[in-house]
């Protein structure tokens, strides 16, 4: 078995998940993983749909129901999007027009 992150073979058993599957840990990079994961990452098409629904200002619970993702994952995704936004807003001065 190899680490999915660094491909190292220095793998140790590291307990069990709350689903009862064996958890492993890479001794080189510290990555924790299960051997045959049943839960797959959210695909790019679903992420794009979520982005569109967020622009429509739908409730997170509604977006989670429509897309089939968990509310917890969706909240983490939104928080990550917010963290990636620039923290300072660029404001350009407005042209002043003088009327007589």
Automatic annotation (TrEMBL):
Transmembrane region(s)? none
Using the record's annotation, list all stretches that form the InsA N-terminal zinc ribbon domain.
2-29
Recorded superkingdom: Bacteria
Protein known as: InsA N-terminal zinc ribbon domain-containing protein
Species: Phormidium yuhuli AB48
């Amino acid at each position: 078995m190899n680490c999915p992150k660094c491909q190292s073979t220095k793998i140790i058993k590291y307990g069990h998940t709350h689903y009862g599957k064996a958890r492993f840990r890479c001794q080189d990079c510290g990555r924790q993983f299960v051997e045959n994961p049943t839960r797959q990452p959210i695909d790019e098409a679903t992420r794009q749909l979520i982005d569109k629904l967020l622009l429509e200002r739908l409730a997170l619970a509604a977006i989670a129901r429509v897309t089939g993702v968990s509310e917890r994952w969706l909240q983490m995704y939104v928080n990550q999007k917010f963290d990636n936004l620039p923290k300072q807003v660029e404001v350009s001065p407005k042209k002043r027009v003088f009327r007589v």
